[in-house]
Amino acid sequence: MKKFYLIAVMTLMALTVSAQQKLTLSTYAGSNLEKVDGQECKVTVNRYLFHGWNTISLPFDVNESELSEALGGDFRLERLVGIESAGNNVVLNFQDCKTSGIEANKPYILYFNGENANCRIAKTAIISNEASSLSFSDGNEVVTMAGAQKQTDGQGYYGILVKDNSEAKFTAVTNENKGGFYATRCYVKLASGNGKTISTNHLAAGETTGIAAVAKTGKLMDVYTISGQKVASKANASQLRSLKPGVYVINGQKVIVK
Q: Are residues 62 and 44 in contact, defined by beta-carbon separation less than 8 angstroms?
């Protein structure tokens, strides 16, 4: 009986392995993921990265160890955590999230420290076809960052130009610099259009604290943006918790509101 049970388990395992689909993602035109949505696949992606800042969004999770194997351990990975706008200028606040790795379909900026190269990630993973984006508002502007699941027309969006990627500078796509976004790249869209100038700010992983830790002190506190603009005076705990998602300076600390 035990022998029969063992054979049955081994047969089931073999069938499971053989049933796993092999998936090679196109990082240019994009891939049809509807048929494999939610399924475990042996997936391979060959993504060309330029030395400096790139954008990336993948339809499966990749942890820090797997990224280090593919990119080298000195890469940087950041996600958008808030925005600030004043007049014609918009600041995107990104925070280091290297230890968390890549979450399926979330948009990231990635600093590749090697020479321009085609980097290969191969693993068994659950594939997700569900689009995901990040949106933040400071009351004056709404910024959305998303990944392109297929080749996307760039008109009206912002992206990182290869020739100007040392500072993660997002530039508006216009008639003069016509272009689009290949699959697995990310773009930024402003609710007001693409007539503003975008700059980026980089925060370390431990540079911020949560709003709950600040609010629970019960003190009345002034609230500022990273750039020093006051947005609230003598805010109480309830007012602090109701701040729009983003990064603020409160009582000398950088505080993140999710």
A: no
